[in-house]
Amino acid sequence: MFEEGAKLKILHGVDKVCDFSIGNPDMIPPQEFQRVLMEEAGRTEPRIHGYMPNAGFPHVREAVAAFASDEQKVDLTSQHVLMTCGAGGALNVALRAITNPGDEVLASAPCFVEYGFYCGNYGALLKLVPSTDNFDLDPKAFAEAITEKTAAVIINSPHNPTGRVYPEETLAELAQVLEAARKRTGRRIYLISDEPYRKIVYNGLKVPPVMALYRHSLVATSYSKDLSLPGERIGYLAVNPAADDSEKLIGALTLCNRILGYVNAPGLMQRIVARLQGASVDVGIYQAKRDNLKRIFDDAGFEYAEPQGTFYFWLKSPVADEREVVDALKKELILTVPGRGFAGPGWFRVSYCVDDAVIKRSAEGFRKVRKLFGEYC
Ligand SMILES: Cc1ncc(COP(=O)(O)O)c(C=O)c1O
């Protein structure tokens, strides 16, 4: 997608292409990031750029634990937090530690495309579970999909690509399903909550705390989206202190953080995020972009799932094969992503972490393409 966009921009000019394909935030990090970056970068003590304990600098883990305790409504200490190379690194460390080859990992479809590859890295298999019609988790469908091979469930809220925030009742129901499965099969199933968009929610919505609802839970997250730092590869993995054998699990995770090749999360970024707990880009700006696009889609006559968070719009294709719509949009120099890449055929994704001018410029193309396909079939 990255290369495709770059090619079109060379061919037609940057100001002609509306690239809604990838979730690469265009917003600059909050002002305090620049200040803290300059201060931390100026430090010259010996080993300031050295290795640190495999789970990260103790003072950083402590700062993260204090903030995450508040978010998750449980008492995390530095021991329960590992600094990682983004949320992707956190998920890989968790899957390496939790799964054995041949195990199954469940996720609600549609989902972030990379989960399947992450599972495959360790010989585990991603099994997709259908979501409800409004893209909520379906705990009953999870109950049916669980087998003795199920090692973990990955959930993602706010959700990429649908923008859905799962309600607390649904999460509590899922927790009951997982607890019942443990009693039935004798195997604990870990719930891995992938939360890099936690702070990007609209209209004051709150993302419920998974750790308060299910004890065998882990939170994988990053500062990629809320601080606009995806290229700096910084995030963390937190383990619920109430999980059985949590110490043993943390030991395994810490080893995996090193042996998967990351060795440790970037030191400079660790020190910076420790000082920026709670900071975020202005989410109101994303909300305004969402509202502008909503007007464009309403005007054009597209059906969609209105995002409650993230910066993704999930649109229904007027024809069964959404690739036809994506191709037609491409001819208008509008880049979007077919839903089948997320196991969501018949839909397509518009990523709106882009300049307002791009959104404005896209209106005519969306209108033209919508007209081309007539009524929804
Ligand atoms: C749902 C989801 N999980 C994980 C990631 C990976 O995030 P990071 O860049 O922090 O590794 C992304 C990135 O887009 C994502 O959308």
Task: Summarize the SSE layout with pairings.
Blueprint: H1 2-12, E1 18-19, H2 31-41, H3 58-72, E2 81-84, H4 86-98, E3 104-109, H5 114-120, E4 125-130, H6 139-145, E5 150-156, H7 168-185, E6 190-194, H8 210-213, E7 217-222, E8 235-239, H9 246-259, H10 267-274, H11 283-300, E9 304-305, E10 312-316, H12 322-331, E11 334-335, E12 337-338, E13 347-351, H13 356-372
Parallel strand pairs: 1-11, 3-4, 3-5, 5-6, 6-7
Antiparallel strand pairs: 2-8, 7-8, 9-10, 10-13, 12-13
Bound molecules: pyridoxal-5'-phosphate.
- How many domain regions? 2
Q: Are any ligands bound, and if so which?
A: pyridoxal-5'-phosphate
Strand content: 15-25%
Q: What ranges have pLDDT less than 50 throughout 5 or more consecutive residues?
A: none
For this structure, what is the CATH class of the largest domain?
Answer: Alpha Beta
Structural class: alpha/beta
Widest beta sheet: strand line-up: 2-8-7-6-5-3-4
Which fold name is given in CATH as the topology of the largest domain? Aspartate Aminotransferase, domain 2
The major β-sheet equals: 7 strands, mixed
- What's the helix count? 13
Give, in order, the helices and strands.
Answer: HEHHEHEHEHEHEHEEHHHEEHEEEH
Radius of gyration: 21 Å
Assign a percent range to the helix content. 40-55%
By oligomeric state, this entry counts as: single chain
What's the CATH H-level homologous superfamily of the largest domain?
Type I PLP-dependent aspartate aminotransferase-like (Major domain)
Query: What distance lies between the first and last C-alpha atoms, to the nearest angstrom?
Result: 28 Å
* CATH architectural category of the largest domain: 3-Layer(aba) Sandwich
Overall geometry comes to globular
Count of individual beta strands: 13
Mean pLDDT: 97
